[in-house]
Input
Amino acid sequence: MSNTLQVSIGFKSTAGVKPENQDSVNYAIPTGKQLELKGISAVIADGVSSSEAAKQASSTAVKSFLQDFYSTPDTWSTKQACQQVVSSINSWLYQQGTSEANELRGWVTTFDSIIFKSTSVFIVHVGDARIYRYRQGTLTQLTKDHQTWLSKDQSYLSRALGIDTVLQIDFKVESVEEDDLYLMTTDGVHEFLTEEEIINGLLLQADEEQIAQSLVDTALKNGSDDNLTAQVIRVKQLPSASKEEVYQKLSELPFPPELEPGMKLDGYEILQVINLSSRSQIYLAKDMETGHEVALKTPSANYSDDPWYLDGFVREEWIGQSLKHPGLMKTFQSNRTKQFLYFTTEYIKGQSLKQWIHEHRHPPLQDVRDIINQIACALRALHRLGIIHQDLKPDNIMIDDNNRIKIIDFGAVHVASLAETASVIERHHPEGTLHYTAPEYLLGEKGSNRSDIFSLGVIAYEMLTGALPYKEKQINPFNLKSYHHMQYIPAKHARKDIPDWLDMSLKTACEPNPEKRYPLLSEFTVDFTKPKPDMINKNRHQPLLERNPTAFWKGLSALLFLIVLIQWWWLTN
Output
C-alpha cells in the first residue's frame, strides 16, 4: 500500500513578560487531493512592536495565508502561490497601516511559512523569525535574519510585511527525510537559547507541543524579555509508491469496449464517431438525463499497459475541469458512477486547424493574424495557471462555425504543481509532435512557456506558407546535437508577398535557442501585427551569414570556384 505524507505538529506561544502577545502561529493539514497538490503548511509571524497594530498584523498574516494559499489554483507551483498570497497580504497590511481612516498606524510583521509537499519542503521567509532543521545529529538554520546592524549594539529590521508596497521574499526548496525535525521560532526564543539548548530540547522524549513548551520555558528562564513562540514539526512518513501500485491505481477502471452509434454507456447514448486514432477514440454522445450533446473520449487499447499514457489521460480530464477560458476545451465532471475509463468534453462543431490549412493555401494575412491572436490569448490563460501545453499543433486546435478557436488535448501538458510531486512514472521521450516540438525538448532540456511560443511560431509559418520553417532532417531527434544544426528557411522563399519584418517575427518565434526566442506571447503577436523599426534595421544590417546562410555558402563556394579557375588559367598560360 502506498504511503501518504504524514507530519505531527505542536506549538507554544506566550506573551512572556510583556502585557500582550503580538506573535501568531498556526498550521493546516489538509486531506485528499489538497494534501497531494498543496501540501501541509505551518506559519509563524512576529508583529513588530514599534508598530501600533503589531498584533493585528501578525494575526492577519497567519490567518490570511492559511486561507488564501489553499484557495489558489491547484495547477500553480508552490512558489507562485506563495509569492502571490504573501505579496497580497503585504499590500493589504501596507494600505491599512498608511490609511488615514485607520486609527492604528503601522501594520508590520515578520512572516515565515514551511510547506511540506511530497518529498520536498518549501520555505518562505521575511524578517528575523527563524526556521531550523534537525537531521541526524545536526542542527541547521535554514533562514537568514533580515536585520541590518548599525553598530555592535544597535540594529533594525530590514524586511517585514507592511513596511512598503515592494516586498522581497526569500524562497527556497529543500529535500525532506523521514524523522526530520523542523523548528520555527520568534526572536524571543532563539535569541535566548544556545544551539546546545535547542538540540537538547528537540531530543526530548515528548510530543511536539511539549517540546515547544520546553524550549519556550528555557528561553524564559534565560531571561527572555519578548513574546515567545515555538512551533515544532516532525516528519513521520513520506509519500511513496511502486510502479505496480501507480499502475493499479490508474487502471482501476477497465477500458470501454468499441462503441458504435446506438450503444449506451453510463447514461450516454453514442450518436456518431467523430475521430478514431491510434491514441484515442472520440464519439458524439447525448446525455440521456439532460439531452445535451457532448464529446466522449475513450483511451486506446494499444496503451492499456502504459502508465505514462494512462497518467496523461486521467490528467487531461482533471485539467479540463479547471479551465474557464473560451479558447480552451473544457471537460465535464459526471455525477454518475463510471463503469469504464473515459471522460466527456464540450462538443465543438467545426474543423481542425490542420483541415483549415489544407483548404486555405494562400490565406489573407489578416485571417492568419486573427487566428494566431486567438491561440495566443488561450495559451496565455493556460500559462497563467502554471500549465505548458507541450503538444500544440494544428491537429489540436479546433475552429468552430463562428471562426473561434479552441485548444484541445491536454494529455501531454506540464503542470507546475504536479511537477513538484515525486512520481515513479518516467517520461523518456520528448513531448509533442516532431515538427512542432521545441528543440529544447529534443536536446533533453526542460521546457517553458517559450516552448509553446515556438510551436505557435511554426503554426503561424505553416498557415502563411503551407510549409515548415525547418527541414525534417534538421530536427530529427536522433541527429540534433545543438541549436546551431537547425537553419531557418525564410518564409519569403515559399511566399514572396511576406514582408521582411513579418518574416523576422516568425524567425524569432521559431528561434531554436529558447534564450533568443520571444519571452512573451504578447511580444510575438505585436511584432506579427505591425512592423517594428528596430527589427527592420536589424535585418538590414544583419550579416548575410546570419540573414541567409544558404546564400552565403553558395556565394562563397562560387567565389572559391572562380579563384580556382583563375589560378588554373594563370598556370596554363
About this structure: The chain has a mean pLDDT of 90. The domain at 255-346 is CATH 3.30.200.20 (Phosphorylase Kinase; domain 1). The first helix runs from residue 32 to 37.
